[in-house]
Amino acid sequence: MKVNLAVSCLVAMLHRHVFRRCFAWTCASQVQMPWQRTIHHGQTSLCLALKRQVSWANQLTSMTRKASRLGFSSETIHPSENESEASIIPITVLSGFLGSGKTTLLQHMLNNNEGLKIAVIVNDVASVNIDSKLLRGQSTAVYSDNNLDLLEDDSNDFSYAAPAGIVELQNGCACCSLSGELLTSVSELLTLSDMRHDDEKFDHIVVEMSGVAEPRSVRNIFQEAIMYDMPLMERVRLDTLVTVVDCSTYFDYIKSSRAANTEESPELFYRDRDERDQEKGKAELAFWMEPSLMLSDAEGGVCDLLVEQTEVADVILLNKIDLLDGKTKEVKEIVTALNPRAKVLATSFGQIDRLGEILAFSKGNGVAIDGVVDDHKDFVKAADTEDCSDPRCTNPLHNHDHSSHSHHDGHSRSGDLSSDCNHPTCDDHSHSHSHESKDTQSTATHAGIGSFVYRARRPFHPARILSVIQKLPIVRGAPSEEAHEIEMSEITTNAFQQVLRSKGFAWTADSNVKALYWSHAGTSFEMQCLGRWWSTLPRNQWPKEATEAIISDFDDANHEESSTSTTVGDRRQEIVFIGPGLASQTMQKSIKATLDSCLLDGDEWDLFCSKRTDESSLASCFENRIRTRMLT
Ligand SMILES: Nc1nc2c(ncn2[C@@H]2O[C@H](COP(=O)(O)OP(=O)(O)OP(=O)(O)O)[C@@H](O)[C@H]2O)c(=O)[nH]1
């Protein structure tokens, strides 16, 4: 077996450099692919996202569930090909902030491999890949350029199980500077697997990302590989995204205002002072240390990264529970509010019960095939189905089962505040029912994390909405100069300060065309431009398969873009707010009322309508100082 492996490795090594060159060339030649030109020419990236969905739908049989949600007809999906499906190697990506316990989890998985052949790719942003060394130290079956000597080394007394194969990606982040290398590494492992006997082939590939990696970018890498018909993607599938959370620091980091860079937070990047001093001298590190390369924008913070890692995951491991004094439920509450789709497991030292809780968990139906629009739709759906305590509410989407006493106003999901009930019809005498005072008291008394969706079909006045954005607990991303002040009560100001995460579609009056995406996480705010509203494009330019999904966002399915139209199509405010106490109707109402006051009033709307076909007029009438970034 060892001889086999050695031969495999040698051949794979020969392929390695050739393949890398070919792949680099392929990537370079794709820089000007038509879809990218489309974006440059003002088309919509939302359109791109949905085009991708169509492309994926035709290539991935497992997309049926998501595809139907997006309006794809079943005819557009090829029937499942079981034989080829069986030979596809599922990939699990482990993300999680620096030091959260990814390597520890991986070690646990290798030690308890249940007979599965697990190959691993380990990414470390530092020039020395410590994690791979840790894993490599357990293995005689190591594949690496400079460690072939280990292959025949019988003298190692290893107390751990070995990864079936290992490739290291170091000195950069696999989601950005080493993105090309990631697929190359997968391909190398595949070559290695192909050269093995049937019973030695890899069953799974696990990628341990660096602590500063953004899972959304990793997902994009694989989705683009599918879009470009890379043959590799017929053999592997990005299946499950796992995020490891360090429970003991999560609260502090998510509320922290610090940036994720080596200057402001050196302790996040270096294990000790020596390492920091050593790395500092190396010129090449300046490349990955650039915050703009590590995060999607130069203004990114630790909280953005943590929120993204939490949101884009099928499984979230609440690790290091041994360091918490029974506060696991609070962390779970916040994590569940940020990602209602994920399965949440509590672990200590990454000790999961079964590998099936992580490996191939999503069976091709997880967040790996989603895009930013799907992410948003899932959140809106989750917020819409929140348990509702309003006795007059007739929204059929809401859960009105008071008997569960789970999430409704005044009840903490953690159960810590189970005696504080402000449900007006509750007759449980064990509950405190000082309803009036509860909502008007400090919001800090509401430990429960709540979420709700703000919706409107009129544009925001840019100056007024800026003054509201400035009330969020943010320190970066919005202009700090004084905006038009709007009146706000103390309760409302407090309510905005409680918002931990807000995101969704936004429409500002400086444009009748631009579809904006509002994204606030912890202390950072960003407004991104998704592209055009679908309404602005003739229907024959819409992807046919996505028509139903697009129309579902219209205020009127028969909307026309005429100057006399009273409907607005898919232009809308659809923003999800998440934060402690936001299950409270009072909190929600005060936020809603304030946002309503930022919408154009009657006269402003008339002015907007008179100029709506002239973008430059709108931009000068309704000056917008909120910087927007093109979402690519
Ligand atoms: N107390 C405690 N310590 C843990 C737990 N899991 C991991 N650790 C420790 O936390 C430290 C970091 O763990 P790693 O597994 O290296 O974390 P990582 O996410 O791979 O770190 P990076 O590669 O730097 O991002 C190590 O000292 C682990 O022993 C846990 O559940 N409880």
TrEMBL record:
<dbReference type="GO" id="GO:0000166">
    <property type="term" value="F:nucleotide binding"/>
</dbReference>
<dbReference type="Pfam" id="PF07683">
    <property type="entry name" value="CobW_C"/>
</dbReference>
<feature type="region of interest" description="Disordered">
    <location>
        <begin position="399"/>
        <end position="444"/>
    </location>
</feature>
<dbReference type="GO" id="GO:0016787">
    <property type="term" value="F:hydrolase activity"/>
</dbReference>
<keyword id="KW-0547">Nucleotide-binding</keyword>
<feature type="compositionally biased region" description="Basic and acidic residues">
    <location>
        <begin position="399"/>
        <end position="414"/>
    </location>
</feature>
<keyword id="KW-0378">Hydrolase</keyword>
<dbReference type="InterPro" id="IPR036627">
    <property type="entry name" value="CobW-likC_sf"/>
</dbReference>
<comment type="similarity">
    <text>Belongs to the SIMIBI class G3E GTPase family. ZNG1 subfamily.</text>
</comment>
<dbReference type="InterPro" id="IPR003495">
    <property type="entry name" value="CobW/HypB/UreG_nucleotide-bd"/>
</dbReference>
<dbReference type="InterPro" id="IPR011629">
    <property type="entry name" value="CobW-like_C"/>
</dbReference>
<feature type="compositionally biased region" description="Basic and acidic residues">
    <location>
        <begin position="425"/>
        <end position="439"/>
    </location>
</feature>
<dbReference type="Pfam" id="PF02492">
    <property type="entry name" value="cobW"/>
</dbReference>
<protein>
    <recommendedName>
        <fullName>CobW C-terminal domain-containing protein</fullName>
    </recommendedName>
</protein>
<feature type="domain" description="CobW C-terminal">
    <location>
        <begin position="449"/>
        <end position="595"/>
    </location>
</feature>
<dbReference type="InterPro" id="IPR027417">
    <property type="entry name" value="P-loop_NTPase"/>
</dbReference>
<keyword id="KW-0143">Chaperone</keyword>
<dbReference type="InterPro" id="IPR051927">
    <property type="entry name" value="Zn_Chap_cDPG_Synth"/>
</dbReference>
